Amino acid sequence: MKTNLKPATLCVRGGYEPKNGEPVEVPIIQSTTFKYDDSDEMAQLFDLKKEGYFYTRLQNPTNDAVAAKIAQLEGGVGAVLTSSGQAANFYAVFNICEAGSHIVASNEIYGGTFNLFGVTMKKLGIDVTFINPDAQEEEIQKAFRPNTRVLFGETISNPGCAVLDIEKFARIAHRNGVPLIVDNTFATPINCRPFEWGADIVTHSTTKYMDGTASQVGGAVVDSGHFDWLAHADKFPGLCTPDESYHGIIYARQFGKMGYITKVVSQLMRDLGSIPAPMNSFILNLGLQSLHLRMRQHCSNAQKVAEYLHDDPRVAWVHYAGLRDDRYHAIAEKYMPQGTCGVMAFGLKGDREVAVKFMDSLEMINIETHVADTRTCVLHPASHTHRQLTDEQLRQAGIAPDLIRLSVGIEDVEDILDDIRQALDKI
Q: Which of 8, 196, 291, 319 fits a 20 to 30 Å CA distance from 145?
């Protein structure tokens, strides 16, 4: 296949090139295992001396073809699919952290990731310091410790819609000899490719825009191949010292730029097994084929909806980087000149009950925990996903108690606006 294909072409053709007489769609290899005639050949696969398939918990041709497409879209050297976005973020961090390690993370991140780092990973002996991503570099630097191994942020935060200054975060990370991991779920590689701005590893919840139809749950981890693990070998023993469970393999040395992804597959997938079903990867691939078209419509519709809400006197505030007076407008123009995404946050004048009444009055727009698919949907985090937090804890997590997350779909924008208008009229 021709190299240097444009993103729109990669959405359709990336990751898989059928040979003569083969299916044009990636086949669903719905098999747990693979047959070999020679036992030595199987042994070489288990020793990582030969490439091939032997058990779907580690690798599967359907999964690998779709992972390759996502790697091409992001401009990475390799990728691995996981069973969810949460699994992707866990694998991305745990692949280079262990008990005694420390993470620095933006506090403007998805609540599930916030809990993963702040609660669950602490139980594994991995500590975290959350920082304000808009703070000055000197302030963020104070959060770093000798045992810090990762800096983490989201391109566009969920649900606050803050835009990450990727270059600033990359500078800070590399000054401290650690990689920058960026969750690029909301922007997608159609609107932003973090590797081009200094990020080292990208994660995705493929459940969102990449799928686009709310049909499967999945995640992805993509490596740029840029970070020099061996130059910081003392920080990353998992990659730079022998893995006795694989006959002393040193991943960063034996596999070079593919060392990080090889370790995710051969060690974490082997031991933890958060794989997607091949059928899910097939469905994801169908969604990816129209990603470039859908993102354009999501952004176009969202811009019109944000402008409408911005000008309505019943609306207290709107966070959408496409608005000229949004605090992130200039930085979004830098990193995402073609548009950000279809998700915005806004608040109504009044208390929580006003937000709930507005949402309950919607006729077409769905109230649901999902976000970023073809259908417009809405969520009040303080009443739903973050209801266990106090108002003060919500603010510390970057979520206003009155925040409503609106994910604008690809329906006719006039129908979306009509539904919002009639619901506002009832509050």
A: 196
